[in-house]
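Changelog entry: the 4-aminobutyrate--pyruvate transaminase record was regenerated in this release. Current contents:
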Amino acid sequence: MTVLTNMQTRDVEALLHPYTNAVTLRQTGAHVIESGEGVYVTDADGKRYIEGMAGLWCCGLGFGDAELVDAAKQQLDKLPYYHLFGGRSHEPAIELAERIKDLMPSMARVFYQSSGSEANETQIKLAWYYNNARGRPEKKKIISRVRGYHGVSIVSASLTGLPYNHKSFDLPVDRIHHTSNPHHWREAHEGESERDFSARLAAELEEMILAEGPDTVAAFIAEPVMGAGGVIVPPEGYFEAIMPVLHKYDVLCIADEVICGFARTGEWFGHQKLNMQPTSVSMAKQLTGGYAPLSAVAINQDMADAIEAHSGEIGIFGHGFTYGGHPMGCAVGVAALDIYKRRNILGHVQSIEAGFQRRIRSYADHPLVGEARGIGLLGALELSPGGKAMFDQPGKVGARLAAELVKHGVILRAIGDTLAFCPPMTITEDELEEMFAPIETALDATHHWAKAEGMM
Ligand code: PMP
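Regenerated structure tokens:
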């Protein structure tokens, strides 16, 4: 058994960790990270790692970016806190909203929160408020997807379609339904093409809307590419098949761009890359490069008109967070958007994505890998004991592979038995090479271990 360091002991005695098995953590101790520079972080023992997940899909500009730090400092000196309640405002919030609108011309207004969960919580409240404003009080149900990830607050966790976010939390709440996920490799019928699979999923969505009653369905929410559910890229023609169904029944389309936004998929937004036409968009994470907690919801003109008029009728728009549109967060957001443009981060992603995807796919034939997939600078290796079979004890092999990679100085994230990649978008070719260098060795070692343990 590992002897915990002083810091690790303080950690387990003081913290309840998110997404962690608290019993196992008492034996292993936490991995304490102390500093970061570029695509690297350094732990409390002074060992350096490539952060292949950009933290939690957020540090798209890497660590230690002086411009982002200066933007935060300057704003803290000038006005460390103000809010947008009751008609107050401040320039960083206005400026950032203008820049978001410039990037998404179909959006008319921006509303701020601090996290992705709060953004999606806002989305659902806006969908309800909008339909009340439109005189359709019955139109309130929301359709999300199995394996979608939209956060952990009560409604956003209900939208999330993963069992461990519901189990023992008494979720999901009423009015939220889940339709099938678009994971072609795992969910398609034998021999079913991507296009046929997309058409079938759109037909299933339509059946669900009809079964629930179109007059009761308010919105459909989807990540353009599913992230935390396992980096699931939609099959060919998916949103092209889904969109007409939403239009037919007057169902709002919410794009959750919390991971996909700001160049990650090789376009400014995932919905642009994947032909999704949202009525509203959630953003967070790379909005500030992860340097400040800030999220934004952008809504189109039709929603803005209805919501603004309704607030006039009932006297107030009764929604808002103390830290929504925090001046420091917004100033960092403005600086981040500036950097994305000035340093041509989108162009950089477009120039390295092919090499990144080629490397990911080069492991497709490894005996531990079921499917290798990705888009832009998102990638995944879905592990399997053979073909599409799943391991009897889900998550063990994935965790072992991630731990193996840590030994080699690479931090990646195992989502169950899928290894996810989401490096800082500033990563160079050499750094990519360094990140991929130990993958084969780690896959081999994990494969031998899994066989020795009788898991495959
Ligand atoms: N939506 C998506 C697509 C996400 O990936 C996440 C977080 N991984 C969230 C929402 C929730 O964001 P937060 O953890 O900031 O609440």
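The chain has two domains: 31-64+344-452, 67-342.
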